Amino acid sequence: MKTSRLTGAVCACVLALVAPGSQAVMLQNGQILLFTTAAGSEASGIAAGGSVFDSTSLESYNGLIIGTAQPTIPDIDQLWTSNVVGVQGNHRTTSAVTVIDGTTLDFSGWVMIIAGSDYAFGAQQGVATYTFDGTYFTLDYVWDASYNGGLGLGPLDVSRYTLHLAGTVVPVPAAVWLFGSGLLGLVGVARKKTLHAA
User: Which residue of 27, 113, 155, 186 shows the fewest CB atoms closer than 10 Å?
Assistant: First the structure.
């Protein structure tokens, strides 16, 4: 009887860990947000030469990994060129993007690279909102220079930065599934030994 209860408890634990439906609300560490060119865009506000709305399309490179810092260049997206000013850039994270709850991410480690130099947005406004249905996600983030003492960023003299990403989420890596199947295997072995002992 005890073995049966233990088996049921372990199975329930494994299913909760690996079942696709268990990730339908919150993103999880290790998941990768893969966004598309059409859905992702970066926009900046005031350029050095005057007021201009500058934007570009982003294309996923390796994707944004939840719970892991991505400090190499390029790492998250392909190199892009701003539409109006013509400055090249891309993105990385200096610290891991982590889940705060079912709708928000700690985005304070997000960095925009402009002309080869890092420009961090700061932790004062470092929260991104997201939706996730188990397969698809959207992510929105807004930064304003007023949250950074009015200091603009780089050659674009960015005063306002907005980001919208949408795409698919790569599930928790296969290692988790292997771990779960391994646990089930151990439960099966333990059950056989108990039956033989009886």
Answer: 186
